[in-house]
Amino acid sequence: MDKFTRFTGIVAPLDRANVDTDLIIPKQFLKSIKRTGFGPNLFDELRYLDEGQPGQDCSGRPLNSEFVLNQPRYQGAQILLTRRNFGCGSSREHAPWALTDYGFKSILAPSFADIFFNNCFKNGLLPVVLDEKIIDNLFAEVKAADGYALTVDLDRQRIIKPDGSEIAFDVDSFRKHCLLEGLDDIGLTLQDADAIKAYEAKRRQQAPWLFDAIH
Fold first, then answer.
1. Which of 6, 36, 119, 157 has its Cβ near the most Cβ atoms within 10 Å?
2. What is the pLDDT of residues 16-50, one digit of tens each?
3. Is 160:150 a contact under the CB 8 Å cutoff?
4. Pairing mode, if any, of strands 158-160 and 106-109?
5. How many CB atoms lie within 10 A of CB 24?
């Protein structure tokens, strides 16, 4: 997992509450367990006018011109601004996979579904919970200015607006550490690789019969 660094990104406003994971990445795309390749099908039912299928070339599909991610002013967006209870529904980890594969690095919302919230951190995506009034103000500012961009500084736990004003946000210290260091569950485990190897060597001596089938 890449380290999460301070970045400045265009904000895309998705002005709807209770966005579930099936809307983020529809069920037909869950057959793959690779973490990549889901970006073209992010919000598939909203982005396109036809029904998408796994492995389909999306370049020629008819676009919904009214959907935010299809509008020129939001191309290349890395921050998603949305409403309460984002990521509800099923627990599919494909949802943060699709968001990160598209290019999003952070999501700003008043609240998130718990499982989706946890999955974001495990996949290098920063979910930021902000007061609903702050979210309302950001929606107004984004819609009023083309190319509206925010700077996300995870180390300082600050969001910097174009005028230089800052919005503080809370984040669990352990999750913050993992994002800053680029550590997912596997990366955390590999930090103790030497200790794991030493333990396995000791167990092999203590109970060699347990390792007879291992080559």
1. 119
2. 999 999 999 999 999 888 888 999 999 999 999 99
3. yes
4. unpaired
5. 25
What phi-psi label fits residue 107: left (phi over 0), alpha (psi between -120 and 50 degrees) or beta? beta
CA distance 109 to 10: 16
DSSP 122-142: HTT-EEEE--HHHHHHHHHHH
pTM to 2 decimal places: 0.88
pLDDT in tens, 66-114: 999 999 999 999 999 999 999 999 989 999 999 999 999 999 999 999 9
According to the 3-state scheme, what is the secondary structure of 186-203? Answer: HHHHHCCHHHHHHHHHHH
Question: Per-residue DSSP letters for the chain?
Answer: ------EEEEEEEE--S--BHHHHS-GGGTT---SSS-GGGTTHHHHBSS---TT--GGGSPB-TTSGGGSGGGTT--EEEE-SSBTBSS--THHHHHHHHHT--EEEES-B-HHHHHHHHHTT-EEEE--HHHHHHHHHHHHHSTT-EEEEETTTTEEE-TTS-EEE----HHHHHHHHHT--HHHHHHTTHHHHHHHHHHHHHH-GGGGTT--
And the tokens for 66? Answer: 């009214």
Residue 23 backbone phi and psi in degrees, to 5? -80, -35
Using left for φ > 0, alpha for ψ between -120 and 50, and beta otherwise, residue 157 falls in left
